[in-house]
Fold these 3 entries.
Entry 1:
Amino acid sequence: EIVFRNKGTVDKFVGDMVMALFGAPLDDPDHADHAVEAALEMIVELEKLNRGWQAQGRFAELDIGIGVNTGIMIAGNIGSDAIMSYTVIGDAVNLGSRLESLNKQYGTRIIVSDATRRVLKGRYLYRPLGEVVVKGKTEPVAIFEVTGRDTS
């Protein structure tokens, strides 16, 4: 629901991971902001769920890690005659997945690449996390934690 409200598309579910697209299949010049807004809303909603579960005496320590990357991707119906689905592939997709995985290592919830940070139009609070070399790459990528909206 949060993805859709922010003009995104839910691509797939893999285990406990949700892959969402912003800017495809329809072009969206504000795709990066929509992705970050969705991420921030997901954190707020998760905190509400955890509080509600805790009040009911249920498990209330679910957490979330979100990676957001911006870049060129191949989008379309990909597969074979037997199984075909709309998705995106490419290095930019892989980096987004790697950023999501880094949240556990950094103790963060939302990590964006510098490519995403540079195209954001809204004002957000960031914490630089340095540069990382992700699996399958040799060039370091600057990454940032998004901690909220800059309301100043």
Note: The longest strand covers residues 124-132.
Entry 2:
Amino acid sequence: ESRAQELACRVQIDRSQLSGSEYAFLDDLQRRIEEYMNTQSWTGDRFLPFEQIACSMQIVILEAVSLSEFRARLIVTTRRPIHDTAQSTVVVRLNDPEWQFEFSRGSSLRYDLNQYNALTSVLDFYAYVMLGYDYDTFSELGGTAHFETARRIADEAKGSGDPGWSTTSGDRNRRQLIDELLAQRHQPLRRAYYRYHRQGLDRFVKDPPKARQTLLGVIETLQEVSQSVSASYPLDIFFSTKYQELAAIFAEGDLGSRAYNLLTQLDPSHSSEYNNLVQ
């Protein structure tokens, strides 16, 4: 019997910032990462082909530290279908600016959660973060087990000294993301992912006014989160992923000005996008 993998991941490596033809073998890395993400069984769950999680990894190579060591930026995106439509929604878009790893011509990627590796541990970490986010949209806090696996990977990475894993680096990083996602005070945000997708977007076709009302309720919940948590990385990720969708949803219906007041207060950096709600 055929069992699909959980992830249907497209990988793209941009090496335009490196000069010289000696880095052509990075095209091989692109294939290997894609194969790694898409052939690995990440969960014990059975997925049918149409249930696979559509995701992408964009890897921008910033610098070759040596012939086999690279600094890169990683942008991870996951989508999910919207019920009763042919459309999908971006669940999360994560931007990781500091990834350093080694890869030389012909080397292979091995999956081993108990062994830290600068290349595969980051792939594993994001695989489980993507799964966590996706599962959270289908049941309340449904992604907890996957987020906990991601935290285990971060624990394993802690002593490595590699960029992106330590809380002391001050900048927002993998460690901070996973700690905050699993913190008690962020549970209302994670529950909001379920309400937003399952009770809001998935019901949009059947009853737009009611779906909008639900989504407004979600934003009110996020306002409470933002008041109880001074600077929330996962909350910022929610808005940087969803701001255009939110602006489009409330552009119609009669909740525009209420949505505008909440959104500009919670997400001032995208105010210009929300302005059309009150025009």
Note: The mean pLDDT is 94.
Entry 3:
Amino acid sequence: MGENDRQQQRLLENSRLFKGFSPEVIDAVSPLLTLCYFDADNLICRPQAGLSFIDTIIHEGEVEISVSSSDGKIMVLGTLTDGDVFGEVGLLDKQSRTANVTAKTDVSLYRLSSANFEKVSKLFGVNEWVALTSYICFLFRRVTNNLEDTVFLD
């Protein structure tokens, strides 16, 4: 196993989404990841129907998650960095992405296509489904907390 393979496995094992997955599933996911690079200030993705849905794990760098209104207003939802994941909602429900993702710094990230996710998901056991459910609950709580903070601002 090369250094890049070990690096990918460590990234998966430590990411909030894949934490709790069995070593066998991590070993199956790792070689399916594709390394991509984006320069600072480049748009990585936006809400759009008809995409080949991809889950993305940030290897190095920082991205900004935002949504925009039809009249051009932009609301920043948050910032993600090393080990964080985006694109997981579209991957899981096969719908369009929910937000814009823009590189705040130069970014390297790993992508997992929906076709590869479907292949790997056939290996999922109880641990993986519990980890996914836990991650979805984490996302829901984070959105709820952010909404509460926004609503109760002066």
Note: The chain has five helices and eight strands.
